[in-house]
């Protein structure tokens, strides 16, 4: 049973995710944001005019986490919410401050990506990413 647990895909994935999020949060902490907030800022920039619930689905963020993080980002002056012209969907856009911050965060993220993948071959990193995306889409 011990071997079965130590080889469990779920438990190992959760452990890997916690480690990666912890490292990402540490990188973003000086900027006052978390990995989830970085992901949300990037989703808003790269999907302009997209309703917030659609953004949440793209980045695998549940409704409660989405609302909490949007509230925090809005209080920090990084995003602003507006009613969509069609229907009652809500959309968000980055403020000037949010856009400037995201540019900084993207540079930090690129550095972190390089450091995280050190020690892995390109094939190993590609395989991990392919499997992670496959599991996320199931």
UniProtKB/TrEMBL annotation:
A Pfam match: MarR_2
- PROSITE patterns, per the entry: HTH_MARR_2
| InterPro entries hit by this protein | HTH_MarR-typ, WH-like_DNA-bd_sf, WH_DNA-bd_sf
HTH marR-type domain mapped to chain residues:
1-137
Show the stretches that span the lipid bilayer: none
Zinc-finger is among the record's keywords: no
What residue ranges carry the coiled-coil annotation? Answer: none
Task: Answer yes or no on keyword Electron transport.
Answer: no
State the UniProt keywords alphabetically: DNA-binding, Transcription, Transcription regulation
Output one GO MF annotation. Answer: DNA binding
Tell me what this protein is called. HTH marR-type domain-containing protein
Species this chain originates from: Xaviernesmea oryzae
């Amino acid at each position: 049973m011990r071997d079965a647990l130590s080889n469990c895909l779920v438990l190992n994935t959760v452990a890997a995710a916690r480690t990666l999020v912890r490292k990402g949060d540490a990188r973003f902490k000086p900027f006052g944001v978390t990995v989830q907030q970085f992901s949300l800022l990037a989703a808003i920039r790269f999907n302009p005019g997209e309703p917030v619930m659609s953004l949440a689905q793209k980045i695998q963020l549940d409704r409660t986490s989405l609302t909490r993080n949007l509230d925090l980002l809005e209080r920090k002056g990084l995003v602003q919410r507006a009613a969509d012209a069609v229907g009652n969907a809500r959309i968000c856009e980055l403020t000037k401050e949010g856009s400037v911050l995201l540019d900084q965060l993207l540079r930090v993220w690129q550095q972190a990506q390089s450091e995280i993948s050190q020690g892995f071959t390109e094939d190993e990193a590609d395989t991990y990413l392919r499997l992670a995306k496959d599991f996320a889409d199931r």
